[in-house]
Amino acid sequence: MIFVMVVLGGVTRLTHSGLSIVEWRPLLGWMPPLSDAAWADLFQKYQATPEFRQLNHAMTLQEFKPIFWMEYVHRLWGRLIGVVFLIPFLAFAATGRIERRLWPQFVAVFLLGAFQGALGWYMVKSGLIERPDVSQYRLAAHLGTAFVIYACLLWLALDLFYAGTRDATGAAAQRLWRHALGLGGLIFVTVLAGALVAGLDAGFAYNTFPLMGGRIVPEGALELRPWYLNFFENVATVQFTHRVLAIATFVLVTAFWLKARQRGLRGAAQTAANVFMALTWLQVALGISTLVLVVPVPLAAAHQAGAVALFTAALWTAHRLRAAT
C-alpha cells in the first residue's frame, strides 16, 4: 500500500492535482462532496489559491473535478493505510500474536505515519500562500519520510518472513551486506534529489542526455550565492546532481553485482542481487526516457515506481547478506 501511495503521490504531482484541496481535516476529510453546493464550495475555495489565480484562472468546475478526485484518492489512500495498519496491530497485540519486543517498532512506525500525514499538509500549505507550487524542500521531506516508513516496514517483514534461514556462507557475505546497505542509502539520496527536480520542475529543462545544453556541466551551475543554494534551488544544478547520483548508483551497483557473483552466493541472496542489478538497468532506462521525452505522466510515474522497486531490492539484498554473516 505504501508502494502504491508513493506512485499515487507522483501522479498527483505530475497532474498538478495536489493543491486542489485547500483544507486538511484528518478525521472528517474522507467524505467526498455529495451535492452541487458542496462542489461549488470546494471550487470557490480553490479559486482563492495562487495556482488558480496565476495558472488556472480559466478552469471550470468540470475541469476542476478530475484534479480534485486525484488528490482525494491520494489522501484517502493515506487514511486507509493507517486503518489497515492500526486495527490488525491492536488485534494481534491483544491476542498475543505479536511479540512484545516488536511492539515499540510497530508503534514507532505508526507514529511516523501520522507525522507523514501532517508533513503532507505542511507541504501543501506552502503552495497556497504565494507561489502556485509546493516547496521543493517540503516535497523532498515528504517523499523521504515515505521511503523511511517503507524501509522500516520492509525490514520488519523480511525479518519475520526469513526467520531462521541462511542463504550463503559467512565468508561469502562478509562486507557485502554493508555495501548493499550503503547502496540503499545512495538510492535514498538520489530519490531526494529527484524530489528536488520535481519540486522545481527541473525535468522540463535540458531534455537531452548525456549532455545538458551541449555541455557536460550545464552553464550557470554555480550562479547562485551562497554557492550551496545551487544544489537546492538552481534548476540546472539540481538536475545535474540527480544525474550524477543516478550514474554513480548505476556504476556502483554494477560493481557490487560483479563482486557478488565472485563470492558464490546462493538462494535468496543470489536472487536478490540479480534482481537488484536488473532493476538498476531498468531504472536508468526509465529515467533517461522520461527526461528525453519531456516527462510524460505514465513514464514519470513508472520512474517513481522504479525508484521504490530499486530501493526494495537494495534492502532485500542487504537483509539476506546480513543474515548470512
What's the overall average pLDDT, rounded? 93
For the secondary structure, the number of strands is: 0
Low-confidence stretches: none
| Whole-number total of structural domains | 2
Oligomer: single chain
Largest sheet: none
Measured between the Cα atoms of the first and last residue, the distance is: 31 Å
Question: If you compute it from the alpha carbons, what radius of gyration comes out, rounded to the nearest whole angstrom?
Answer: 22 Å
Question: Count of helical segments?
Answer: 12
Strand percentage: under 5%
Q: Note the run of SSEs as H and E.
A: HHHHHHHHHHHH
In terms of structural class, how would the helical and strand content be classed?
A: mainly alpha
Percent of residues in helices: 55-70%
Rough outline: flat
Task: Offer a few descriptive terms.
2 domains, mainly alpha, flat
Task: Give the helix/strand layout.
Elements: H1 2-14, H2 36-47, H3 50-54, H4 61-94, H5 103-125, H6 136-161, H7 170-173, H8 176-199, H9 230-233, H10 235-262, H11 267-292, H12 297-323
Helix pairs in contact: 1-4, 1-12, 4-5, 5-6, 6-8, 6-12, 8-10, 8-12, 10-11, 11-12
How would you portray this structure in words?
With 325 residues, the chain is mostly helical. The protein has two domains: 1-161, no CATH class; 167-325, no CATH class. Helices cover 70% and strands 0% of the residues. It has twelve helices and no strands. The protein has helices at 2-14, 36-47, 50-54, 61-94, 103-125, 136-161, 170-173, 176-199, 230-233, 235-262, 267-292, 297-323. The two termini are 31 Å apart. The relative contact order is 0.12. The model has no long low-confidence stretch (mean pLDDT 93).
